[in-house]
């Protein structure tokens, strides 16, 4: 009897004898997919509206996307959640965003099951499923699916891309990044771009390069092994960054304004079959001024903003084309299932006037036409953080009303292109069946003949909530399988049911009509009033763009729809309804480290994301660097946070100690030491002493006194009348000994690495500052 036979339950298929000559080996079988299994490529755009791809009627040139559409399918009834992280969670799990605990973006998480930002492991990702089936899995570009307090080098890493089934990752973990100075992560560690903006660096090109190299790496070893790639450029989210020549290609093309854009797009859409022949264009949005009411200066500024956006989209299409051309060159294009989608409608985060610095919006700082005009020629360049005006947002969602964050069709109806030459016979056709972002995963699984797994990594899986639309690929008239779908986003609610849509906008159909702006909380009394009086009803089967509210004449149907919304809300963890805006993002959340008053930072370490870094705004604090200055002196950054959109930097240059605060790119407050920093080991210190109160509603942080010390001796001071109130640099964290991102100040060029030795930098927020009576007297005398 062999030893194997002697041990019941042993699954080893060979024979283990006493010696090798009496044994039979058996190797574990390599995990291989069935021969001919297709690759899967998701291309996910950000903030791109229904009317912005060329193949959806736009005048913006997208030849590579148009070619996919011409040889594939376009869907005109695909829906998302109205916001990026929630939609992306749907695209990768096949479950609704509240089921994924992703009611909002991760920075807006709340302490409720439907919104805590931790996607449950029982909601497996498509990457995790396909990895078990012999696929290589790659994520490229934007992630934004990890809780914001878990983005630092301290982890945990189980909700980073490599923790959710992706073998390789190259991109950025947050919601947006600077396209010239991105916050890059390679697998599980941060990296710096290989080129500078002056050398021609742009993130989209870099992402396409990495996508190509990842696929080539594996294909040269295992050419028959399929891949799943989740390719998510930063486009078209702000900042709208693109080399000048791409924007200049659209010079003058938007001078006739946003109404004209809508009319041109809407004229093309019925011809293309993207909208029904009897569709009506939605009304002029009350929050958008008529183009003819604008001054010549405003028209010039807004037209340029759109030229930059259009150039950015064409530039992105170009680099997607490079990826597609590579797939053709290696013979993989024909057998790759390609799905192109946007995560929500066009974005309104530029505000009514657009912005040259999107961080003004997040700090409640009003836009200035005069300041924006000064930056007109810099739009799209590394020096700006720009976003277009509401008029272009509204136009970008043609023919629908409203935009991102709202659950009218303008916020939730998005392009979807499906291309698979070996599996789809129909070419260039339109599909009108209702679908949602949760339907992509079950569709792919059906195409690949894969049953959803019951467990992943030992975790029992929840049911997939989407339904496949694969049956529509070669049959244009078959009915949809997706009959009911709820929507909720930051208080906005709606429900689709079998050709009907009920919508409950918050705070109203527009800000002008509501008499208030985005962001107030919804009380129980307000919610009752909304449910009683403010739901609207549309028969979208015959009213494509939601133009005719028929709630008053169809009260029983409306009540049925409202009741169904609550049933769905209960099923998918939607409650409580939360209509807060900025307040939601300011809510305190659990952190990996306990609160403390002293933070110690070290050189040659990764940047600390804003959510994990010390918070210095609106409080007295000190920064003390323990340094060694070599013979001949040193220069470089000691500690910095932010970029050219706002931030601070504590540094040494030309032998002097410096501190600068960038107030949302409006003002630079700079202090320079009177004396030089001596050679040897020294304590270099900065102190900020609060001297007044902030006015957060008006975008003004606390005023204070900035003081510089060398070894405890005051060497420089200045009054700072206003500081950034709410959010420092949108895409740059705290860095010690270096500042590789967009520079806080033009006083130095990145990365401005410190050339001496830094032992540590300690930030103290306890309020324990130097009490130097002599220094105080000198300050008083200096003011006389």
TrEMBL record:
It comes from the Bacteria. PROSITE patterns: SULFATASE_1, SULFATASE_2. Keywords: Calcium, Hydrolase, Metal-binding. Residues 1-31 are annotated as: Disordered. GO terms for molecular function: hydrolase activity; metal ion binding. Residues 38-449 form the Sulfatase N-terminal domain. Belongs to the sulfatase family. This is Sulfatase.
